[in-house]
Amino acid sequence: MTTAPGHAFADQVLRHVGGAVNVVRLTHCLARLRFVLTDDTIADDDALQQMPEVAIVVRQGGQLQLALKVSVPLAYAAVRHRLEEGTAPGSSR
């Protein structure tokens, strides 16, 4: 397991899913971040898969899911924080 994910991780994930404005909903389970996107065709699965923190990219049930090699609750908190503060790549705020 690598170090705890932070803002750089969150910014990179959000850039690869099409920006903060493309995220409708973000949830998580024990092992995955789960995104519901406005337009799932603009998410870059290959770029997400190349991230060292990402074990696998899965599309299932209308969601883009990232199985992670790092703490999912910490990754979720980092991405959620970026979405809420409006400083993420692709943020309209």
From TrEMBL:
One of its GO terms (molecular function) is kinase activity. It holds the Pfam family PTS_EIIB. The keyword Transferase applies. It comes from the Bacteria. The active site is at 29 (phosphocysteine intermediate). Keywords: Kinase, Phosphotransferase system, Sugar transport, Transferase, Transport. GO terms for biological process: phosphoenolpyruvate-dependent sugar phosphotransferase system. The keyword Transport applies. Residues 7-89 form the PTS EIIB type-1 domain. This is PTS EIIB type-1 domain-containing protein. It comes from Streptomyces mutabilis. The lineage of its organism: Bacteria, Bacillati, Actinomycetota, Actinomycetes, Kitasatosporales.
